[in-house]
Amino acid sequence: MGDTAKDQAGRTPRAIYLEDYTPPPFLVDTVELHFELEPDDTRVRARLQVRRNPAARPAQPLRLDGQDLELLSVKLDGADIDGSRYRLEGQQLVMDDLPDAASVEIETRIQPAQNTALEGLYVSSGMFCTQCEAEGFRRITFFPDRPDVMARYTTTLVADRKAYPVLLSNGNLVEQGELDDGRHWARWQDPFPKPSYLFALVAGNLVCIEDSFTTRSGREVALRMYVEDVNRDKCGHALASLKQAMRWDEERYGREYDLDVFMIVAVNDFNMGAMENKGLNIFNSACVLASPDTATDSDFYNIQGIIGHEYFHNWSGNRVTCRDWFQLSLKEGFTVFRDQEFSADLNSRPVKRIADVNVLRTHQFAQDAGPMAHPVRPDSYIEISNFYTVTVYNKGAEVVRMIRTLVGQQGFRKGTDLYFERHDGQAVTTDDFVAAMEDANGIDLSQFKRWYSQAGTPVIDVHEDFADGIYSLTLKQHCPPTPGQPEKQPFHIPIDMALLDRSGRPLPLRLEDETEAAGTHRVLELKESEQTFRFQDIPERPVVSLNRGFSAPVKINLQRDDTELAFLLAHDPDPFNRWDAGQNLAMSVLLRLVENYRGERPLTLDDTVVDAFGALLADEDLDMALIAQALTLPSESYLADQCEVVDVDAIHAVREFMRRTLAQRLYDRFLQRYRETRSDAPYRFDARSMAQRSLKNLCLAYLMETGSEEARALCLDQLEQAHNMTDSLAALTVLAQYDLPQREPQLELFYHRWQHDPLVVDKWFAIQAGSRLPDTLQRVKGLLNHPAFTLTNPNKVRALIGRFCQGNTVRFHAADGAGYRFLADQVILLDPLNPQIAARLISAMSRWRRHDAHRRQLMKAELERVLAVPGLSKDVFEIVSKSLEG
Ligand code: 0A1
Ligand code: ZN
């Protein structure tokens, strides 16, 4: 750890360790909260019924967390007490010598309008709202702000009736009334015990869009969505998705909703996507509001998934919650798995799987290979907000998926039934989750649990042998070292596989100890460092299809030539592996081009490769979305991850070369497909129409690579004619990549058309920040001063700065270091306002060691400049210090 940096309180931030966990000394049975809401002077009264925890070490004091609070008064069992009966110790209020049960009442003052960190109670577009996960509740009142303290909440809100006609909190509305000073009040009661991170309140001038859902046991649930009046027409998709999610959880997991009302609120300023507060989900407006003319297919798709995700948390997270924050993946990994399956069931399963694996391989594998690598269940952290990561979420979901693969669909359902039954109302650990799976299925998953405790991406080296009708497959696993974990034990890895004959048909599989063949695919369980599987009666040398459907989150090391990859791309019956073969084919071509980039010879592309992609494009039977995914070349950042030392410019140049060459050689096919897929039908959100639009827009992007007049005319025509955001944004995004006379006027036109809609303006910022044109950084800097931009809105920051630094590899990594300087400057400005967002941004430089010496030096210097800033947040401190160390 760097030894000069200090946190905001002037201390060097300390790490918290899983092994130091101890049960809470006191439990809280009930909480009565009373809020008098004023933007600059909110009074909070909290009355806690506390009781000594019989499971804790005796004679410990009561410790209540509190941050940035002005303490006004403390009462014990109804009587005022003075400072001799309690002490403020760091960020805790400590009371010694309490009786075994007591009522503690505390009054505090906070300033929500000054809260730019967006944790705790804050004001967004004139409304009050909260974000308490992970440790935001302590910014509202003094409380044991840890998830293993579960209490019943009653919340009274008092506010000006005109400015805040809507007053919401968790649970059911039990009483409301008027005061004679123009204020009104409402009291909400949540019958379910919950941890403080699930507390929420909202007060504002909002309209309510209503719907309802009848549970399968016949209970009627009121569904209410609260939004600003201008957004009243953007609620339909979220409400439809919510009903789909409610039904799906009943059908797939036997889980019903448990309150009489389910509320969703859209807010403009939000650090993440959404939050599962009990009965009162709060959403980033970008992740919930949609209409065909302002939201794209991927927005619609994501909203459906996020609505599902937050709803599913009601069981996986709220009714059964986490004992401590090291267990975050208990709720997040499982819930991501649930939302992935929900989307797969409602749309195209292979398309969803490919998208999810793409995220995992580009972002999670990269995290595993860098200084912030951590296990799915981390064992230490400095700032928990930094651990809402692709590892905890997405790799966590893969771990749950592997359990399902190992126990089968029915065994998995038995396991989840047991888990919910055993732990309803409890705060538990990932070990408890695994134990339920083991007990329900009578199996031993002790080796498997290494997936929770060991970081890093396992690599499997594959060796094949074929002789005398016996095909031998040798799998050798190893896992590279990660910070704090130099050596790893072997993982328990489920590898789904098949053997294909010359025409692509899967062969019957019989292992040496079996009497007859059973099935044409197999889940092999690799548990040793090295294992050989021998398949009998194989008539010819087969082509192996390995890790089908990406059954394990590993890297497979198997040398194949272009012909074999092209064969799999054309024939593998597993759609995921078909796509994967295409990616591997493109990747091996691109990596060879990178090798030769600085040599004498001009770049060339073999016919095998062009023909393979051309055949795909012409395939009338294949799902159009799969074609589009297969024709999308691996991203520059994914390619960079495959290189020892990253050559940013070479990677960019060869990828552009391959796109251009495919576009030129397959021009007619792209054109034909483009024409076939254009349609004037009104917008519909369904898998088929989305697939059609994705293929059409992919074709347009390729056609534009050729620079033809014809392509340009098509692009401009699409911009003009488009009757939905998917098509107009796709055309504008392509146009923004080229220095053409129409570029500026079209960007301007778009802004003027949509300037009243902040979510569309975000897209407009992002398009410009993502342009590969050389002057992009200048442009981004200029846009920082645009009236629509503000550093205090996370969506704006992500659209402009985030897109440039994380989604525009070639411009961000410009050799003069201007991109790095820009990022550090922005992080230094942002950190005092919103540390969470600042920390996420600076992560763009955490893998600086992988670059050439010149860029390494530049990035390191910028990281050091950030680290030297006095009063740096814990959030940024942790990322920067670990990046410099790792
Ligand atoms: N539990 C939420 C994610 C979330 C985490 C932290 C937040 O504020 C800092 C907000 C949301 C989810 O998984 O959706
Ligand atoms: Zn979640």
How is this structure best described in words?
Helices cover 40% and strands 20% of the residues. Strands 6-5-9-3-2-12-15-14 form an eight-stranded mixed beta sheet, with no helix packed on it. The chain is built from 26 helices and 31 strands. Helix 15 (687-705) runs parallel beside helix 17 (725-735) and helix 19 (758-769) runs parallel beside helix 21 (794-807). The termini are close together. It is α+β, with helices and mostly antiparallel strands and 886 residues long. The structure holds O-methyl-L-tyrosine and zinc ion (ZN).
Write a concise synopsis of the structure shown.
The protein has 886 residues and is of the alpha+beta class.
Main sheet attributes: strand count, strand direction, barrel closure = 8 strands, mixed
Distinct bound molecules: O-methyl-L-tyrosine, zinc ion
Instruction: Give the C-alpha Rg.
Output: 28 Å
Q: Could you say which structural class the secondary elements and strand pairing correspond to?
A: alpha+beta
How many helical stretches? 26
Overall, the morphology is: globular
- End-to-end Cα distance: 10 Å
Oligomeric organization of the protein chains:
single chain
Strand tally:
31
Overall average residue pLDDT: 97
Give, in spatial order, the strands making up the sheet with the most strands.
Answer: 6-5-9-3-2-12-15-14
The residue fraction in helices comes out at 25-40%
Assess the beta-strand content as a share of residues: 15-25%
